[in-house]
Structures are given as C-alpha cells and as structure tokens.
Specification:
alpha+beta, 5 domains, five-stranded antiparallel beta sheet, four-stranded antiparallel beta sheet, 25 helices, 18 strands, flat
Length: 695
C-alpha cells in the first residue's frame, strides 16, 4: 500500500489488576480495528502489547487519507416519489432528507422495467491524521472494566489512573486528549529499572523503546520468561514447581520484568497441613511451591519478582519475611483449632448465616443430615455406611468456624478432615468431610466413596432446593450462588457412580424437610422449576457430548423427569441412530405417519378376525414388541427396547405400502386406526420418533 505509515498508540497507567488486564488485551484486539474500520481508515494488521502499566496498539500500513467513496441508495419507485405533475411527494422529500441531500439531487434509474429514485452521495477523501484523535479517544472509552475509578479533578473513568499517552502516525504526533493529558512521543519504562521518560522517534520504535526500558510487553513473552526461570530453578534444586493456571495468569500480569527467584521458609512450618501452606503461598502471596521427587512439599518456593535482579538477596529476604509471618499465623491457628474436637464447633455454626430466609449453617447441617438419611434409606445402603454418612453430614461444615478456615477460606473441608482425624473420627468420615464439596468445577473428581458421595449430593441438593424455594434461582447469566455448578456436580456424581438414587424423589424429600422447618412456598411450582433446571443442565451436557437436539427431545417427549434416565436413553438412542441411520430414519417416518393418523378416542381394541394378512403380521409384531419393550425398560435395558422397536420396521413398512388406512368403509377404517393406535402406543415409554422424522 503506497503512502502508508505505522500507527502506535500507548495508554500508560498505574498498575492494572491482572485479570482486568487480560480482558483488556482481548478487547483491544477487537476495538482498534473496529474503530479504524468505522471511519474507513485503510490499515494492515493490528498487534496488541500490554503490561501492568500500559496498553499498546501497533497498526501496520495505515493510509495517509481515507478513500473517496460514492454511496448509492435506492429509494421508492418513481411513481410513488413523484405525483402526476412531476412534483416530489413526501416519500421523495423524506428519502432525500434522510440521505442528507436536496430532493433535486435525486436521480431516476430504470431497474427491470420499473423506475426508482436513487440518492447518490459523494464522500470525499479525508486526512487520517485529523481523524485519529477522536478515533483513538473512542478506543480508550470503549474498553470495558469490571471496576473503574476517577482520579484528580477529571471526570473520565478508567481501571486505574492514566498517567501518559503516546500516539504516533509514522513520525507525527497525534494529539489525543484524555483526562487532562495530551498524547506526545514520551513513554515510560519499568517503574524502578528505567522509569524514563523515554523519547520515541517514530511509531515503529515504540515497542523496541519499551523493551529497552526493561518492559516485557506481551503476556506470552512474560510467560516464556517465567517458565524458563522456573525450569532453571527446577534443574538447580531437583525439585518440581506447581504452576496452577489461574495463579500463573495473575503473576504474568503483575510484573513488567519478571524474574523467578527461590525463597526458603523454616522447616518447622511443614508440620502444618500442606494445604494451608500452599494456600498461603499461592492464594495470598502468589508464590509457587516446590515439591521433591516423591511429591512431598519442600520448604522452598518460587518468587516472581518485578524488582531489580541485582538486588535478589534483598528481594528474597523481604519475601521470606512475608511468608514466614503468614505461615506463623497458619501454624498458630491450626494449633489453636486442635485444642477442641471437631464436633465442638458444630453448634457455633449458628454464628454463620447460610441465607437470610434459610437460616444458619447449623440449620443447613440439620437439613443435610435429614436428607442424607432419606437418601441412604431409599438406596438400601448398609447400616455401617449409614452411620458414617450421618456422622459426616453432621461434621461436614464444622470447620467453617475454625480459625484456620476463617483466615484461609479455600481450605474449608480439607481442614475439617484434618481435625476429624485428630479427634479420632473414622477415616471414611474424615475423607468425606474433605471431599463433600466435590466436584467443584467441570472435570473435577467426585468424592471417592459412597460416604462422601451421599453427603455431597445432600449438601448440593439442599442448597438448590432451598434457594429455588425462596426465589433465588439463577436468571440469565446471573448465578450468584453457583447453582448451575452445583447441579452439574449432582449429575456428575449420579452419572459416574450409578447409585440407585432417584433425583426426583430426593428433591421431593428436600422440599418436605424445608416445609417441616416452616418455610412456605408453592411446592408444585418449585418442584417443577427444580426438575426443569436439572433437565436443562443435562440437555446442555448431552448436546456438548454430541447428542442431537431432536434425539433428546424424542426421549423427553415420553415424560422423563430423571436426568440420568434421560442421559442413558438419549445416548442409547443416538448410538443406535448413528449405527443404523436408515432403520431409525425409516422408523421415525413410519411412527410419524401412524401418529398423525391415529385417533386416540377409538382405543386399541381392533378385531383380529377382520384383519388382512398384512395387518395380522403387523398386529403380531406389535404384540411381540410390546412384551420385549416392557421387559427391557423394566430392567433398564434401553438399547434392547430400541432393538425391539426396530423390529417393527419391516411389518409397518409393508402395512403402509399395501394398505389404505382411510378406507371408505367406516368399520374397516376404524379397525385399522385402532391397530395404528396400538402400534403408536408401543413407543409411548421409549421415544417420540416423530421428533426425529425427516423434515
């Protein structure tokens, strides 16, 4: 492209929060080209560079002028635009006004024998440098932040105060104005290593100037620096670092010049449960723990510094002091909590509100104990396991009021497990306490055994039922209580374990417990909403797994309320449909034909003596299928039920190929319709194949 230049735009700020910076980086990649395109500025590729203190857009091949443009708009037909005397009508006047033209400027053009009026508007070429101040100001305003602030006497709002602006088109400064600042050619470097200002001669130099001022200007490059440094530390120590994705993302966007370093804490702190130490390092300080060859936590950890590497000893010493203070607190809280047995904390759960209308965590504990008892009774679980389930349900939330969990909230459940073990509780009880929050997210492991599984189900279902009952169901994208995640957890446990538990009966049991506690709500309506909520979650999961929507609808049409039953049947139907597509397409079509013709009011009592040979063959096939389908469904052999239905294909095809159902003789017609009614009834508890018929 001739007569082009590079555009460089930098917004310099105070440190932007890590995850906000990540989202802003993604937004800029869309905002910048869209803003240029909106005013028809020709340009090449857009590259985005960001660090905690800056957002940079580099645009290649920006033209010096926009292209001249002729805009042509077709208006109403000429006979509508002008009256018989040739005078413009309101239609013509309004059309011209809407295009910014005088009515006299409208042109008449013939199109396929019909004359229309056209508005032709010439848009002249414009100087791009003159357009850019407003365009780039719009980019700043277009960035969406979770939280914004004002600073000084300005009225503009941004994630953090904006301290400088750089805007260059080639060698020319673009005077973008924002929050009392006017863009120039001076950028800033690393806050400590090369603060600046640093002069940028041209747009092509901005990134190299920033890099020369000890700033690594992309997330990808900073991650590579961190991983390289971590690998070197691992090689030197023989230990392995844990780099959780969320914490790594945060650390990447907390430093402009990251340098991994190794710190050490007193081995005495290793007597504290590992989870507290890791929580203190990862969640609170963004340090990465190091593990030995056996996977055991060591007293070494990785710091990612944004300071001067020449002062590594001082930086490490300061961070070691910080982590020591955190770990001392953790050890103190842990030792204090152990002075009481875990069950001593249960009554203190009255101090913690679960939900205003649903009472305290102590109230929730009582409900979970009752609901787990209902589940174990219905599932026929052994007495010994029932006792462990009841005990686990009683103790599951007790650690919420311990000092360690109040300070380190992410270890709830885990600390309860440690305290339960210290108090002499059964190992399965301790493990269930640790695992009853599982699965916490998609793909997370479910509780290990039936003890934790039942407590997890009871806890999650109690939460869902209670919040639906008080009108706190998720709406749109809003789900403040994470009920969708809880529902997926329930479904994952039921799916993976195959426990003989009816979700619908468990929902009914939970609502009974709430009513007995005095909560008032429309039971039928809330019950329906909760079942629909679970069914919707299962439908989404099935579609994500590749099951077609009409397959799911075909199963649901039979009145299925249990999500796990829906899942098993939909998968079996989809598999059979995939393996024998022609059979099932034909069967769907045949069912649809029968379903469209049948008259329910006639019943199914056809007269065998009046059947033709073809009709008799279909009647016998239907009778056989009825027995086979009923037996298969009774044993939960849904695939076998589908095989039994597939056996109807040949006789029903023969029936429709040779038989006039709507015979002129009303008796013959009625007898055939009754046979079709019976044929359609075989499908009633399997699937509505009309949902799958070819369109």
């Amino acid at each position: 492209m001739s007569d082009t230049a590079t555009l460089a735009f930098e917004i310099g700020t105070e440190e932007i929060p890590a995850f906000d910076l990540k989202r802003a980086t993604e937004q800029l990649a869309e905002l910048v080209p869209a803003a240029l395109d909106a005013v028809r500025i020709p340009h090449g590729e857009v590259a985005i560079y960001t660090s905690p203190r800056r957002l940079i857009a580099i645009v290649a091949d920006v033209a010096a002028r926009t292209e001249a443009l002729e805009e042509v708009f077709r208006g109403p037909a000429a006979k509508i635009a002008f009256d018989d005397a040739g005078n413009p009508t309101k239609a013509a006047i309004g059309f011209a006004r809407g295009k910014g033209l005088d009515v006299d400027a409208l042109e008449r053009r013939d199109e396929n024998g019909t004359e229309y009026v056209y508005a032709v508007r010439q848009v002249p070429s414009q100087d791009v440098a003159a357009l850019l101040p407003e365009v780039l100001r719009g980019v700043i305003d277009g960035i969406s932040w979770p939280k914004s602030c004002r600073w000084g006497t300005t009225t503009e709002m941004f994630s953090r105060p904006v301290r400088w602006l750089v805007a260059l088109l080639g060698n020319t400064v673009i005077p973008v104005e924002y929050a009392g600042l006017v863009a120039d050619r001076e950028t800033r470097g690393h806050r400590f290593l090369a603060p600046g200002p640093h002069t940028v001669a041209s747009a092509d130099d901005l990134v190299s100037v920033v890099e020369g001022a000890f700033v690594v200007p992309t997330q990808e490059a900073r991650e590579a620096v961190i991983r390289k440094g971590v690998a070197a530390i691992e090689a030197a120590t023989g230990f392995t670092a844990d780099l959780p994705a969320k914490t790594l993302t945060e650390v990447i966007n907390l430093s402009e010049y990251p340098t991994p370093m190794v710190g050490t804490f007193d081995e005495e702190f290793l007597k504290v449960p590992e989870e507290i130490i890791v929580d203190a390092m990862l969640m609170h300080q963004r340090y990465f723990p190091l593990y030995d060859a056996d996977g055991k936590l060591t007293n070494k950890f990785i710091i990612v510094s944004n300071g001067d590497p020449a002062h590594e000893d001082t930086i490490v010493d300061g961070n070691e002091r910080v982590v020591a203070a955190r770990l001392y607190d953790a050890k103190f809280f842990y030792d204090e909590d152990l002075k009481l047995p875990l069950d001593a904390y249960v009554d203190r759960l009255d101090e913690v509100v679960f939900q205003e209308a649903l009472g305290t965590m102590r109230d929730k504990t009582a409900r979970v104990v009752k609901l787990s008892s209902r589940i174990t009774s219905a599932a026929g679980i052994e007495a010994a396991e029932m006792r462990d389930i009841a005990r686990s349900a009683y103790l599951a939330k007790a650690d919420l009021v311990t000092s360690a969990v109040i300070e380190f909230t992410s270890v709830q459940g885990i600390m309860g497990s440690y305290y339960a073990t210290a108090a002499g509780e059964a190992p399965r009880v301790a493990r269930a306490i640790a695992e009853h929050y599982r699965p916490r997210f998609s793909g997370d492991a479910i509780p290990t055994d039936i003890i934790g599984q039942v407590v997890a189900l009871s806890d999650k279902i109690d939460t869902i039922c209670g919040l639906f009952a008080v009108g706190q169901a998720p709406t749109g994208s809003s789900d403040p209580f994470a009920l969708r995640r809880a529902a997926l957890g329930v479904l994952a446990i039921l799916e993976e374990t195959g426990l003989p538990i009816s979700l619908v009966e468990t929902i009914d049991g939970s609502l009974i417990i709430y009513r007995e506690a005095g909560l008032q709500f429309d039971n039928a309506e809330v019950r329906r909403e909760i079942i629909d909520f679970f069914i919707t979650r299962e439908k989404v999961a099935l579609r994500d797994a590749g099951v077609k929507a009409d397959t799911i609808d075909a199963v649901l049409a039979c009145g299925i309320e249990e999500p796990i039953v829906l899942a098993r049947r939909a998968r079996a139907l989809e598999a059979a449909r995939t393996e024998n597509p022609q059979v099932f397409d034909d069967l769907a079509t045949a069912f649809a034909r029968a379903n469209n013709l049948r008259e329910i009011g006639l019943g199914t009592g056809y007269k065998k003596a009046e059947l033709t040979d073809v009709e008799t063959a279909l009647a016998e096939a239907v009778a056989t299928a009825e027995g086979n389908v009923a037996a298969a469904l009774a044993d939960d052999r849904y695939a076998d039920a589908l095989v039994a239905l597939a056996a109807l294909r040949a006789p029903v095809d023969e029936f429709f190929d040779t038989t006039m159902v709507m015979d002129e003789d009303p008796k013959v017609r009625a007898n055939r319709l009754k046979l079709l009614n019976r044929f359609a009834n075989v499908f009633a508890h399997v699937a509505d194949f009309s949902q799958m018929a070819k369109k």
